[in-house]
Amino acid sequence: MSSPSQTEKSPALIWLRDEPGTRRPSHSRAQIAAAAVRIADTEGFDAVSMRRVAQELGAGTMTLYHYVRNKDELVMLMNDTVMGEVLVPDGELPSGWREAITTIARRSRAAFERHRWTLDRVTDISIGPNGIKHFEQSLEAVRDTGLPAEKRLGLISLVDEYVFGYSLRETIDFGGEVGDEQWPPGTLELFERELQSGAYPCISSLMSDELHTDNVADGTRRTMQIISQPERFEEGLHQLLDGIEAGMGSAPKSN
Amino acid sequence: MSSPSQTEKSPALIWLRDEPGTRRPSHSRAQIAAAAVRIADTEGFDAVSMRRVAQELGAGTMTLYHYVRNKDELVMLMNDTVMGEVLVPDGELPSGWREAITTIARRSRAAFERHRWTLDRVTDISIGPNGIKHFEQSLEAVRDTGLPAEKRLGLISLVDEYVFGYSLRETIDFGGEVGDEQWPPGTLELFERELQSGAYPCISSLMSDELHTDNVADGTRRTMQIISQPERFEEGLHQLLDGIEAGMGSAPKSN
DNA sequence: CGTTAATCTCGTACATCGTACGCACAAGAC
DNA sequence: GTCTTGTGCGTACGATGTACGAGATTAACG
Q1: Could you say which DSSP state residue A49 is in?
Q2: A49-63, A88-102, B11-25, B56-70 — which is least confidently predicted?
Q3: What is the C-alpha to C-alpha distance for residues A10 and A153, in angstroms, rounded to an integer?
Q4: Chain B residues 72-111 with CB within 8 Å of chain A
Q5: Is the CB of A71 under 7 A from strand D?
Q6: Which one, B69, B167, B194, B253, has least CB within 10 Å?
Q7: C-beta of residue A243 within 8 angstroms of C-beta of residue B243
Q8: What is the rounded distance in angstroms from the CA atom of residue B44 to the CA atom of residue B42?
Q9: Secondary structure letter of residue B208 according to DSSP
Q10: Which of B149, B154, B135, B101 is nearest to A206 (CA)?
Q11: Contact status, residue A202 vs residue B140, Cβ threshold 8 Å
Q12: Is residue B33 a contact partner of residue B78, using CB atoms and an 8 Å limit?
């Protein structure tokens, strides 16, 4: 009677199951997710263990498993919570497609910046309710482009990919006045040693001729600073959208 | 005499230390890295444990710690190995900057595709010898653009970010004929349920009006397929480079 | 050759993690 | 009251990263 993978009773995906509520549950999914997000924000993603989250909630460890099947589902809750912050509030989505897409891209980047841990476990991402709403908003943003469905989907995916990639690199940020704050200690020395071998003419010329420094460490730092300049996000997005727009005017290729 | 963080003896960064070799080491960093990469490729990144790698080498677990300080260093070796595959062989870098950058981008994407696990632990990325060579090649690619240093660095970073973002999304690929092979099981049902609420006019209209399907599952699958079309990589790269090129012709803004 | 000291190997042990199992309690239905 | 079952959680187990230190091997030197 009961198949090993029962498809009707108690679905595998958490969003398809009701959260506990018939009796009088002490916690809600939202509370649990919020607690986990709080820990990840302040102590890093690795600090998010079932024990730590339970402790944060003042509950026993195994209690969590009444709300969540396993840790992956907890992470799903966390990710969807962040996705909720990406959503543009009702009525605030600009009408022009460029402005609309830009607004969404900025919000995405801001959310990733607030919760850098999102990009830690990026491979096993799932789509939850807020993810679907995000998709809806993205489609809304490009509705009036006049492009066929495939082109519109390609457009929003392309921008998503850029924002993702940019945010990811930003996470590995060497920003500000750091030396090797984010990089593993010794990275500067590695550069120094390698460059002295003379095998890197372009890097060497960049540093000595253009950045005007004979100190490799300073040159490396300066290079990292340039790459990490936050205004590069807007510039890159602008260039990307320019390229997209240029391709829109031309007749759609017929194959 | 010995400061707690000794800077001269035994540097913290693995690339600054000689690998064992004075006596007669049974293994080399290259061998160890190759073994770990092999495991990650075939069994997934999570299967790469110190015990498993040691077993693959026919060595005791703790033997690895003679070649590597901790697992992070092992992962550094793995990542730099992949970076080695990204490097364009001598003399094969095209002369035009667009072609050169495109070549590098394609190789990067191909390497990420061969070793999807690279994107799993993307946050704690470090730069090794091959990473520096990659940087050199990127600079070489844009050498003759005539752009100032900052613009050139921005250019190669921008393309890197796109490739990274694209590859990342590709990892979460729903490609081919899958239903919910990559997505957590039940994702299709979630879409189905959510869309029936009528709260997603753009998604609904996309599926019924443009993809001509009243079956939500089919529409979702079709949408995923469109997004996952591999030729989107080249298209997106092309559009991005178009946007960059358009910005190059104009006089550099003076502020 | 034998002695020595550094290099290389690795077994044991421990803290920490995710979570299977199953009992205890208590809320609602009757 | 009694029964059912939703809810809470203690215990226990296997897996992981790695600290510690003891053994084995080799090169160098007398």
Answers
A1: -
A2: B11-25
A3: 33
A4: 76
A5: no
A6: B253
A7: yes
A8: 6
A9: I
A10: B149
A11: yes
A12: yes
Judged by a CB distance cut-off of 8 A, whether residue A234 touches chain B is: no
Cβ atoms within 10 Å of B230's Cβ, excluding its own: 11
Whether A12 and B183 have beta carbons less than 8 Å apart is answered as no
Cβ within 8 Å, pair B239-A240:
yes
Looking at residue B217, its amino acid is A
For residues B146 and A210, is the Cβ–Cβ distance under 8 A?
Answer: no
Q: Which residue has the tokens 């006089």?
A: B251
Residue B22 sits at φ, ψ, to 5 deg, of: -70, -40
Residue A192, token pair as written in the block:
């120094």
What's the gap between Cα A252 and its chain centre?
32
With a 7 Å cutoff on the CB, does B72 touch strand D? yes
The pair phi, psi for residue A20, each rounded to 5°, is: -50, 140
Which tens digits make up the pLDDT trace of B43-100? 999 999 999 999 999 999 999 999 999 999 999 999 999 999 999 999 999 999 999 9
Q: In this complex, is the C-beta atom of A59 within 8 Å of any C-beta atom belonging to chain B?
A: no
The protein residue nearest C20 (Cα–C1') is A62
Token code pair at residue B213: 């399907």
Q: Which two tokens stand for residue B99?
A: 């072609």
As a whole number of angstroms, the distance between CA B243 and CA A245 comes to: 9
**C-beta neighbour count of A155 within 10 angstroms:** 24
| A162–B165 CB contact, under 8 Å | yes
> Which pair of structure tokens corresponds to residue A125?
């991402």
* Residue appearing with tokens 């080695």: B84
| pTM, entire model | 0.92
Position B29, amino acid: R
Nearest to A108 by CA among A76, A80, A86, A78: A86
Closest residue by Cα to residue A52 from A27, A66, A71, A80: A71
